[in-house]
Amino acid sequence: MIRLGLPVIVLLVGTGWFAWASYRRAALAERALAEVNAEHRALMHEVRTLERAVAAAEQGLRTLSSHPSVPRDVAVTADLTLADIRRLVERKELDE
């Protein structure tokens, strides 16, 4: 009886330990995934905010460069800046 009982007890304890360790790893992974998702949502909100700011700046530069009272060198600089903004937005060359 002892020969058969001890392996069964060891097997049950080992199975229980393995199940508990697996559960803990799964719980940690779930928490980590929730944190990553929250960070992703926050970053996407920040990206949308920046896109709106770039669009407003683009409109302001377009208005500035087309105004007749703006000197030619300022208008050219505004147009170059506008092109740079477009390049950054289109190619997603934003710093990480």
Distance between the termini: 65 Å
Class from helix and strand fractions:
mainly alpha
Summarize the helix and strand pattern as letters.
HH
Number of helices: 2
Uncertain runs with pLDDT below 50, 5 residues or more?
A: none
**What general outline do the C-alpha atoms trace?**
rod-shaped
| Number of β-strand runs | 0
Radius of gyration: 30 Å
Mean model confidence by pLDDT: 80
What percent of the residues sit in helical stretches (DSSP H or I)? Answer: over 70%
Instruction: Please state roughly what percent of the residues sit in beta strands, choosing from under 5%, 5-15%, 15-25%, 25-35%, 35-45% or over 45%.
Output: under 5%
Sheet having the most strands? none
Map the helices and strands.
Elements (H helix, E strand, L loop, with lengths): L1 H65 L5 H20 L5
Short description:
This protein is mostly helical and 96 residues long. It is built from two helices and no strands.
Would you write up a description of this structure?
The chain is mainly α and 96 residues long. The protein is built from two helices and no strands. The model has no long low-confidence stretch (mean pLDDT 80).
Kindly list the characteristics that best describe this protein.
single chain; 96 residues; mainly alpha; 89% helix; rod-shaped
